[in-house]
């Protein structure tokens, strides 16, 4: 078991494009469907796997290319070090003082360490100076409890 870290920042408007954050349905629209439905399905099939947008389900990061992985760690504590560093880096830009609170952020890191220790995934999101958004995720891989059939996006030595 190991963990991959993911980071996305961008306009909140882009983050809100939920259709691009969902994997395509396994079955295409039936023959005779509205042309706009067929076109939208084709767009999602083409865009979801390569998009850097955070998926709606944390485990689905594993469907994205290895190029969007920000780091890989074999232990939860190492992954938590990366998470703490990202929170520290971005905290000055968080939208509210409450989100910047160091004690609160440390509690988030401690909870993430515990969750990763038993094989869970971690996903955190923060509004930054408007209208931006930060998404951080650490996903357990090989296997992932939520999606055990998904392969690792980064070849392991």
Short description:
The protein has helices at 12-15, 35-47, 76-90, 97-100, 102-117; strands at 2-11, 71-73, 122-127, 132-141.
Largest sheet: 4 strands, antiparallel
Strand order of the largest sheet: 2-1-4-3
Mean pLDDT: 93
Shape: globular
The structure class reads alpha+beta
Approximate strand percentage: 15-25%
Query: What are the low-pLDDT stretches, counting only 5+ consecutive residues below 50?
Result: none
Discrete helix count: 5
Q: Percent of residues in helical segments?
A: 25-40%
Key structural traits:
4-stranded antiparallel beta sheet
Q: How would you sum up this structure, described in words?
A:
The chain is of the alpha+beta class and 157 residues long. It is built from 5 helices and 4 strands. The protein has helices at residues 12-15, 35-47, 76-90, 97-100, 102-117; strands spanning 2-11, 71-73, 122-127, 132-141. Strands 2-1-4-3 form a 4-stranded antiparallel β-sheet. Strand 3 (122-127) and strand 4 (132-141) form a beta hairpin. The longest helix is centred in the C-terminal third of the chain and has 16 residues, at 102-117. The protein starts with a strand and ends in a 16-residue tail after the last strand.
